Amino acid sequence: MEWDSSDDGLGGSMEALPYLSESSQSMPSTTNISEHEFSCHCCYDILVNPTTLTCGHNFCRHCLALWWESSHKNECPECREKWAGFPKINILLRDATDKLFTEVVQRRRAEIQDNSKISRSLLAFQRYGDNLGRSKPNQHKGAGFFFSGVLTALTCVAVMVLVYHWSSGVVEQQDMLISKPVSHWTPEDVVSWLELLGPWAQLYREPFQQESVNGRLLLMLGDEELLKAPYSIDNQAHRRAILAELDRVKTLGVKPPQNLWEYKVTNAGKSLFLLYALKRSPRLTLFYLYLFDYSETFLPFLHTCCPAITNIGQSVESSFLNTQMEPSWRQWGEFLVKYLLLPYQLIAEFAWDWLAVHYWTSRFIIVNAMLLSVLEGCALWRLWARASIRAMPRKMWNHLWKMLSQGFAFALLWPFFPQFVCNCLFYWALYFSPIINIDLVVQQLMHPETQAL
């Protein structure tokens, strides 16, 4: 029985495979079959997942992926003929090598599986094939691409119109106490500030109006002054709540922001940074807030996501006061569990608490947090399925370095960007990022990354 190494002899050789004995499968040297006939011309070893190109040459799939990644060329490593389409695994040849060289193939599969560089190359090669397969059907959908382009153009126009509208009108409608120094507050400003503390503060509106308390007089008020006439605030919880908020006003020099738009007006650059950073790396961003923005941002965030246990009959002003206090151990424990396992749930819970203030915006943020959680779960599942958990420390370090460099670049370049451009980026990430993430989730669930090994 003669075996031909050319492709024309492959069909005849396959016919003889069922008649091979068990001893010939484990020791192919006892027959006329040689390992050379089933070897890859890149690694010169037994073919693993043999992939046949249009020119007829066969290579290990991982060898072809490494060649494609290093050369960036769609051509045969041996004859340099360009291949058409995306190379597929030769199932007949793969089954033959698995039966004839079982031990060798199993050993090589294990070695390839443990090599992180080869796994990354295979994944990149498969992504290239998936994208190539999805782009081909779209080449004949001219009408679909036309309407998609029209929709994209209308979306960009809508973003610019919204940015212009909010930049010109909404800022003037916002409470200007967030940018007006407290020493310049008029009696009307002080009354407005008092009303924003809550419904319970309405009881003390008349004394402040009768005394014409302006910003300078407000800064001189203390516990004794509030207890005496004409204010006569006998409720200790009310006095503590007013004094706590007054301390924040003294520290900041203005009224602290109480909603998303006020926070954006007072912290334009930081709001844009947090919007993108929380999406890319929520854990590092929350850690940054803990280190550098504890009292103003992190503490209210923690109290909102992990509220303290309160009595049923606790008053509103006491709840307001609790948000200014240090968290309990129970709150810290709940926060750390969510921080490590479900960071996007923290963002969703924070947005849910603001549902009455930002109706549609909160819903966009909640949907986006759910989608990002799904994407993170898919990424962890791929690492587990590919047995790449050992590469986690290196990936985490690369991610940390990437986020630090991007944050540093943003801090340097932020002052040079026009405010209109920053507003466009802000509203695009806030309202249209969920639409993009929906497409990514569909791709992950409908087109999962296939395992080449």
UniProtKB/TrEMBL annotation:
UniProt keyword Transmembrane present: yes
Protein name: Bifunctional apoptosis regulator
Pfam families to which the protein is assigned, alphabetical: SAM_1 (PF00536), zf-C3HC4_4 (PF15227)
Record-level GO BP terms: apoptotic process; proteasome-mediated ubiquitin-dependent protein catabolic process
Source organism: Dissostichus eleginoides (Patagonian toothfish)
This protein's UniProt keywords: Apoptosis, Endoplasmic reticulum, Glycoprotein, Membrane, Metal-binding, Transferase, Transmembrane, Transmembrane helix, Ubl conjugation, Zinc, Zinc-finger
Cellular compartment(s): Endoplasmic reticulum membrane
Topology within the bilayer: Multi-pass membrane protein
Chief location category: endoplasmic reticulum
Function: Membrane-bound E3 ubiquitin ligase that plays a role in several processes including apoptosis regulation or reticulum endoplasmic stress. Has anti-apoptotic activity, both for apoptosis triggered via death-receptors and via mitochondrial factors. Contributes to the dynamic control of IRE1/ERN1 signaling during ER stress by inducing BAX inhibitor 1/TMBIM6 proteasomal degradation. Promotes the activation of TGF-beta signaling by mediating the 'Lys-63'-linked ubiquitination of TGFBR1 which is critical to activate the pathway.
Catalytic activity: S-ubiquitinyl-[E2 ubiquitin-conjugating enzyme]-L-cysteine + [acceptor protein]-L-lysine = [E2 ubiquitin-conjugating enzyme]-L-cysteine + N(6)-ubiquitinyl-[acceptor protein]-L-lysine
Subunit structure, interactors included: Interacts with CASP8, BCL2 and BCL2L1 through SAM domain and also with HIP1, IFT57, ESRRBL1 and BCAP31. Interacts with NGFR; this interaction inhibits NF-kappa-B and JNK-related signaling pathways.
Domain SAM residue range list: 185-252
InterPro entries, sorted: SAM, SAM/pointed_sf, Znf_RING, Znf_RING/FYVE/PHD, Znf_RING_CS
PROSITE patterns (alphabetical): SAM_DOMAIN (PS50105), ZF_RING_1 (PS00518), ZF_RING_2 (PS50089)
GO molecular function: ubiquitin protein ligase activity; zinc ion binding
GO cellular component: endoplasmic reticulum membrane; nucleus
